Amino acid sequence: MKMTRNFLVSVIIASVAIGPGPKGASATEIPDGQSYTNSLGMTFVRIEAGRFEMGFKGKPLREELLTKKGTFVDGDFDERPRHRVTISKRFYMGVCEVTNAQYEQFDPGHGRQRGRGGVSIGDDEAVVVVSWNEAVAFCKWLSEKEGLPYRLPTEAEWEYACRAGTKTAFNTGEVLSAGIAKGPGSRLTVGVTEANAWGLFDMHGNVEEWCQDWYGPYESGDQVDPVGRADGHFKVTRGGSHSTEDYYLRSCNRLGSMAEDKQWMIGFRVVAGEMLETEPLPAVEPPACQQNVRQTVAAAVGPAPRAPGGDPDKPYFRGPRQVVKIADGARGPLFAQHNHFMAVTDCPNGDLMAAWFSCNEEMGRELSIAASRLRYGSDEWDEASLFWDCPDRNDHTQILWHDGEGTIYHMNGLGLKFRRLAVLQRKSRDNGATWSKARLILPHHDVGTGKVVESLFRAADGKLILPMDGRGSLIQISEDDGQTWYDSGGNIRGTHAGVTQLSDGRLMAFGRHGAIDGKMPISESSDMGKTWSYRASPFPSIHTGRRVGVLMLKEGPGPRGALFMAAFCTNMMITDVTGNERPITGLYAAISTDDGKTWPWRRLISDDGPGRYVGTMDGDPILMSASQSEPVGYLTVCQSADGIVHLLSSWNHYAFNLKWLMTAPPAAPPPPPPPASRELPVKRSLPNVYRPLGPGAKGLPSQDEWKWNYNGRGFESDVVSVTGEGLLRMKTNEQQQFWLRTEEADVFGAVDPKKGFAAEIKTQVIGRTAEQRGVDLELYDGAGSRYAVTITDTGVYWYEGVVQSSSFLPFKQYVALAEGLDNTDGIHTYRVAVREDRVAQVYRDGELLGTEPLIYRTPRYPYIYFGMGQGAEGLVEYVSYDLSGPSRP
Fold first, then answer.
1. Dihedral, 115, 117, 118, 120 alpha carbons, nearest 10
2. How far does the chain reach from its first CA to its final CA, in angstroms?
3. Diameter of the chain by CA atoms?
4. What one-character DSSP code corresponds to residue 205?
């Protein structure tokens, strides 16, 4: 039977997919010179045996490398401990990465991958879109072709060769030499940039390079010829790539991916030398959430300890219970800064298991997946532990789901960069104690976004339905229990859609954004997602920082059971136990018993107690009461075998039964008294000052570390100028409004909300359009708090509206602190002093105008704004602030 070249290639790949392959063929001796060139035109240079220090060098990194919030002055956590490594045998390393022309002599069909991701088209460009398995297969083919032992380098060999005797961040010094790093769209031609001292090109950038090792944490102590771990999830890559910040191109930086992953940032280079026989380090122990997992299932049925007596006829509610428990200041592999995008499942043994992403910033490469377990019979969630973390990849979005038959599914994005995600899947048959080897079910990084969305479920016909974000929202379908998937073809309105199936087989979805008449959109499909129709729901639309939770419950008076939906609202009316309507704000739930036609039961997700502060996303405090609950979070919901519904936000766990959901809430208690003012220390002037002119001034704010943003036509210079007296003149027409923001780490970005702070603007309002803002001063502490005032010609106003993003705030959502003033008669000083309890005291020329609590805003980063509304004019002498604590003028 005639076998094609592509068939032979696939056979070679299959033969090496489970291991490194045989020791290199040695029919021909490796050349003994300083260098040699093989039959493919690949040049190799001899790397002598030696010793070096592997890992982070200890010297603080240069500031210009720290361009992202997930980059650190002492490198990444996995670059430590630094340890001494001996390379005991010399080897030959390719002076360049393998090129398209060289690789395609092994696999001619790879030519179809040229240009993927917009890179690597030419013959002499580094080959990309090659998996680790394929790179190893190439080495095996080359070994057999030449009779020499070719293989991938070990991670230690790679770093040793990259450093070439240096101890600095790069082999060019503490910063990378100009011209080495390559940006998006660059040609990946090999060997044209500066070589290191040992004659190796492109060790920093161009493309990442596969190494032999399984990725795992370093161990201390001297090591000889280390080969990594015995097993793992990821194969190491090194060197960084094009379109990547210099921080990730450092000599000691570690990256990696799944062995089957193929992306346009990873290629490889080859070494010639026998396979090392060093004993690998043992595979990493499973995380805490996978340890000591009880396997008995009897406890999962019968009366539930979370609902005393397990009586479904008695209302039951428990919460909020904190799920996210990560040590303060943690920055790898879990991070204290930002934890979000929750997933939850019940386990056959009665446990609950939750997973979420943990990072410093959502688009960062440091993002990892954390997990925790609420063990059956326990009242508290475990401390968080690492669940999944492809090194230096943005592993955005995850799903946990129990199929009701003993199998738990974990699905996750596999990052290339943010929004460039393949999707992996693994399964557990022992309550999440162990998992099958992950495999890619949607392997392409350039199709959609790869963001999986909570609410995976099995349809009535046995198909698995997987909601995703891609062209807005869509679903993937599997007819073989997750082995293969296909796109249904249709688009759900909005993003982050929660999907369920109704009793007549139709699919129903609730989306974020895409409002219809101001209401959350409902999408319905009668053909399993091929086409969708859209209509307005009775619920308010939701926006940034929020995701719905949808679940068809196992019981209830509906055709298949009650339909549960949870989301967020502002001043939505509900009917309480007295029969009166009253407004609620925050997280709520609704129940339908007629497949979503009507929703007669709605109530706030709260313990209905007196007002008290609880944590919400990232632990930021919000007031919870009978009228107010969490304002933000990505919701996930499941129902355990005991009938209890478990709703998790980005921070908390709420447990309740259907009876509680269908019981009218209590009447609202009287509102809490406003916060009291208190005497603050006097500080006449604040130390950090922006002035348009004067010592150290640079002119326009954008020249002095202030970012410019506006609505309307024009540029900063069209609405802002500096007068001869050194004042900033600001003037907008009725179509213009603007703000200026600074958030640099060494200025306002270093704010600590636990200390309190103060900011001040000295300004004169010359005029403004009625019902529009005047001069704005807004403060954001990076922990969910907004403090915003606008100064008009006749008053000072405090923002307490509902906008939770960094947009221009509507004047109608401000309330008056003081009116009847004359702010046009000269320059006045306005100070906002924020106390450590997140209460602000607002002053005009030293006189207290009001005392106001924080207004919650979706947390992002700390910064200070000043600016102006539409059709206004004013002068600013300075803007100043003090991060040491609150003070009065």
1. -50
2. 91
3. 97
4. S
Residue with tokens 């920055």: 331
Three-state secondary structure along 754-788?
A: CCCEEEEEEEEEEECCCCCCCEEEEEEECCCEEEE
Q: DSSP secondary-structure letter at 668?
A: P
User: In the 8-state DSSP scheme, what is residue 281?
Assistant: B
Rounded (10°) angle between helices 5-16 and 132-146: 110
387: left (phi over 0), alpha (psi -120 to 50) or beta: alpha
Query: Any residues with CB less than 8 A from the CB of 686 and at least 6 apart, and which?
Result: 758, 759, 760, 880, 881, 882, 887
Q: What is the pTM of this model?
A: 0.91
Question: What digits encode the pLDDT tens for the residues 51-94?
Answer: 999 999 889 999 999 999 899 999 999 999 999 999 999 999 99
- The Cα–Cα gap between 264 and 774 comes to 50
pLDDT at 558: 63
Three-class SS of residue 597? coil
Structure tokens that stand for 457 in this block: 């479920």
What pairs with residue 834 in β-bridges? 757, 840
Residue-wise pLDDT tens digits, 404-425? 999 999 999 998 877 789 999 9
Asked if pLDDT for residue 719 goes beyond 50, the answer is yes
Beta-strand relationship, 398-402 and 385-388: unpaired
**By the 8 A CB rule, do 326 and 370 touch?**
yes
Torsion sign over Cα 600, 605, 609, 611: negative
Task: Show the 3-state SS of 16-54.
Answer: HCCCCCCCCCCCCCCCCCCEEECCCCCEEEEECCEEEEE
Domains in the chain (CATH in brackets) are 5-17+35-272 (3.90.1580.10), 321-444 (2.120.10.10), 688-882 (2.60.120.200)
- Written as six digits, the tokens of 178 are 């100009």
CA distance 449 to 473: 10
CB neighbour class for 516 (10 Å; exposed up to 12, middle 13-18, buried from 19): middle
Contact criterion met (CB below 8 Å) for 558 and 592: yes
Q: Which of 72, 74, 70, 40 is nearest to 57 (CA)?
A: 74
Checking if the pLDDT of 445 tops 80, the result is yes
Nearest to 22 by CA among 143, 187, 199, 182: 143
